[in-house]
Amino acid sequence: MSEPATTERALILAPHGRDSTVASALLGEVGIAAHACPDLPALCAALEDGAGLLILAEEAVRTADLQGLVAWIGAQPPWSDLPVILLTLRGAGAERTPEAARLTELLGNVTFVERPFHPTTLISVVRTCLRGRRRQYEARARLVERERLLADLADERARFETLVEHLPVGVNLMDRNGGTILSNPAFRRFLPDGVIPSRRPDGEESWITYDAQGRRLTRDRFPGACALRGETVSGMEFIYRSTGEQPVWTRVSGVPVRDSTGKAAGALAVIVDISDQKAAQEALQRLTETLEFKVQERTRELAATLDQLRDEIRDRERAEAQLRQTQKLETLGQLTGGVAHDFNNLLMAVLGNLELLRKRLPADPTTERLFHGAMQGARRGATLTQRLLAFARRQDLQPQAVDLTGLLDGMRTLLERSVGPRVVIRIDARPATVPALIDPNQLELAILNLAVNARDAMPDGGTLTVTVDEVPVPVASGLPPGSYPYVSVRDTGTGMDEETLARAIEPFFSTKGIGKGTGLGLSMVHGLAVQSGGAFRLSSAPGQGALVELWLPKATTPAQAAELPPAPAADVSPAVVLVVDDDALIAMSTVDMLADLGHTVIEAGSGVEALELLRNGQAVDLLLTDYAMPGMTGVELAQAARAMAPDLPVLLATGYADLPEGVVADLPRLAKPYTQNQLAVATAKLLAETARTSAHAKPGDGLHREPRAGIHR
User: Fold this and answer.
1) For the PAC domain, which residue ranges apply (predicted)?
2) What is the helix (H) or strand (E) element at residue 712, kind and residue range?
3) In terms of domains, do 111 and 201 share one?
């Protein structure tokens, strides 16, 4: 059967006479709902919708089949006891009628009302039955609430047990005698049997702790024992020693559990494994012991970083200032390079003609002195030209792998003589520094220029320090990040103010007196560094000296041994030399020097004219051509000439370094201005190599013929 509805209606079964009608009317007058049923099956069906009580006429049930009604009454839930009012005939009470006793046994909660009954009696009995029914409903509500609370409690207990089981700390709930009620795996890891340390005979051996005065605690002062006495103990650290295992650091707490009267009814013990925390504390203690040293070390690092940041800031500020001057310096460089090139050609003519003139003048001391002075002036002009080309980044560099430490060792004597006895030279060079890819002669000249500048900045003497190392390049340099071969020159001289420092690398700018400097020393060093693919930095302050720093490109091959100076011209057979130069003055000087060496010289003023001579069958043993010529460069001429005569040796004379990359890799070069001896060595070397390679060729091959000394124009 379904749960009876909460209703107070009266179901009436009195199918004979007017009892059903009268009872319904009486109940309706006092506000009690009533429902008259025509027969017993209808009554049983109405019970499914709920009823507050039943009013049955004795004659309706005496002989009826009560099996359905009895079954419904027997299946009531425990809280329900449906009241039944049985309307009997006078004198047919239960104490006198066996049938009434039988109905009482079958229907349970039966009240007898004799007929005829007074209306007040019926209403009073009905109200009494309904009050009892209401209490049944209230009991049902309390039972439902109790079941809900029990279900909630079961859910809560399940959640609590799940929480306790998965807690990373050990938890043990005890009764007032210290017996375990509930514990989790983390607790049973230390105490598998659930017995707390204060109740174990070996508790003091396995669990060790001390009080604030350093005294070892006994079992009666353990957190669990204190909690059972009503004391709260939290955060007491123990060393737990299990047989055969490493000691474990734990933190144990005990909290009393009190009943409604406030008395201790049990206790809660909590164990936390703090081994990792203790290990971290020990590591921290070890770290603290060395903290002062580390702080000092870190302070030094931070100071170095701060210095580096300041340097980078200064570099950026300097770079911004240099960017504003880039266009001016670029224009100056182009102008300087062009002037230097033309000046180079003029010096070429001067040096060549002076050498030829010397051979033709009679030996005389006065003449020799004048000639020597003229040669010295021309050579100084050549040096000035090289500095101009260095600033313009157009000098003819011969980069090679250079051992910077070895180069400085070889320069020590030269530097000491150049700066004089009042300047102390210190060379700080690391032997393990990687070789640099640089022209060694130009680098020596640059270091010498810096040393002379430093000497002039230290009129009362001082210290000149040259350092060789491998250090990171500054961000503002424009080079890819990394370590580079490094050369620095530092002096303890007067230094420079900001205005002077900003113009220091400009060509012809000098703070020295008239006749004491050209103003090209720093310009040349700057040009050498940049043209070589490195970086340059100049820093100075008044009274703090100056520092010049060079970062040079790394060499991919080992450092080369120093080359011997060029040997004097070897004796070679006279040859036919085709000289090509658009400058008549230069061509005349070169032609005269070659003719003086015994060669037959053919002169051409352009590449087109030279090619025309070769096409017409002019026999030539060597082609000497200038690089910079209008219409056709010396490189283009060499390519065209070799197309006609692949074995023809070509010597390229130039003062430029910015030749097309890779095109002239197989062309030997003769740097302007050159002397007759340099010309003789270069031509002799080429002619000798050609003779060796053509020794196995058939006579008459190529454009060669038996030479005859002279000049052909």
Assistant:
1) 234-286
2) strand 710-712
3) no
The DSSP result for 411-448, as a single string, is HHHHHHHHH-TTEEEEEEE-TTPPPEEE-HHHHHHHHH
The three-state secondary structure class of 362 is coil
pTM above 0.70, yes or no: no
Q: Residues in the chain, how many?
A: 713
Residue 67 tokens read as 């099996």
Cα–Cα distance, 442 to 238 (Å, whole number): 78
Angle between helix axes 98-107 and 67-74 (nearest 10 degrees) is: 50
Which pair of structure tokens corresponds to residue 276?
Answer: 């990792």
Q: Which amino acid is at 247?
A: P
Mind listing the pLDDT tens digit for each residue in 278-327? 888 888 888 888 888 888 888 888 999 999 998 888 877 766 766 665 55
Cα angle 89, 93, 98 (rounded to 5 degrees) comes to: 110
Residue 676 has a CB neighbour count (10 Å cut-off) of 22
Residue 437 maps to a domain = yes
Kind and range of the H or E run holding 89: strand 84-89
SS3 (DSSP) at 204: helix
Number of domains in the chain: 4
Q: Are residues 496 and 591 in the same domain?
A: no
Q: Provide mean pLDDT across the span 166-170.
A: 83
Which residue, chain included where needed, has tokens 């060729």?
697
- The two beta strands, 600-604 and 576-580, are parallel
The model's pLDDT over 37-66, given as tens digits with 9 standing for 90+, comes to 999 999 999 998 889 899 998 888 888 888
| Domain of 95, in residue numbers | 4-138
Check whether residue 34 and residue 121 sit in a common domain.
yes
